[in-house]
Amino acid sequence: MKNFFGPQGLTSSSADHLCNIAKNLYESLETKLESTNFLEEYITIIGAQAETKVALASKDILTTAPDILKKIAELKSFIAWFREAIKEKERLTQENEYYCSQERLDHMKTCPSREKSITRDQIIESWTIKEQEEYLSLQTRAAVIGKYIHKNSPLAKAKTELSKRINKPIVTECSGRDTIVRRYQPVATENEVDRLMIQLQNEHRSLEARINGIEHKIDTEIREDKLKKDEAYAKASMAYNHKLQQLTEADSIAKLTKDKEIENLKIVIPNDLKEIYEYLNSLGK
User: Fold this and answer.
1) Same domain membership, residue 269 and residue 205
2) What are phi and psi of 192, to 5 degrees?
3) Dmax of the chain from CA atoms?
4) Minimal CB count within 10 Å: which of 88, 89, 118, 127?
5) Mind listing the pLDDT tens digit for each residue in 171-193?
């Protein structure tokens, strides 16, 4: 804050009023200076007996000019000082419009953020080598068996073909002397193939059950971790917002107090301007 203000002085409205008076005065004095002329002008009409004076002149300005110039300088100095003071007061008011204490600024930097939930990869990476190998092995075995026993798998196709050829073991192709006879001889019974299919299906289901159990544990850990972090975030946010509200309310009170202080600031009258102030003040009454 510049040294414009003190316990005694003028309000902004009073200063502005006197500045307007000062402006009118110096403009009037400047008009007088602009009319400086040291020549009187006369005109004579041919045939007339006398001259007519058309322009007046006076040398009084030779003695009054220094005082006029001094007065103009004093008036402009008065205006410069008080206009700058008024601008400074307006700046302080504007600056205080968005008042925020350092404590609130520091607190806002501590705004909590939601921690990311743990991922499947992070959980798996936290396992021992044995646990990771077992999980991958179960998935691999289940995938290999599943590929062999699914609806269009080699085993399913072979079983369908076996049943077909048991019912029709001989097939002929072409005709006449070019006839080819194909005979199919089963090396396994349908029951044997069914037993293998059931055995592999049971093993596949067992593997899937173990995998699903592990997947369930992973999902549970992710869900519990998310719940824990959400609760921590909610608790931290509540504490942060409560403190922020307190600081905001305190800043609002501080702002109102500061606004009042700025409003009550008095613009000091420098010693060099007191004489011109007294003169202007007498005119303004």
Assistant:
1) no
2) -65, -40
3) 164
4) 127
5) 878 877 778 878 888 888 888 88
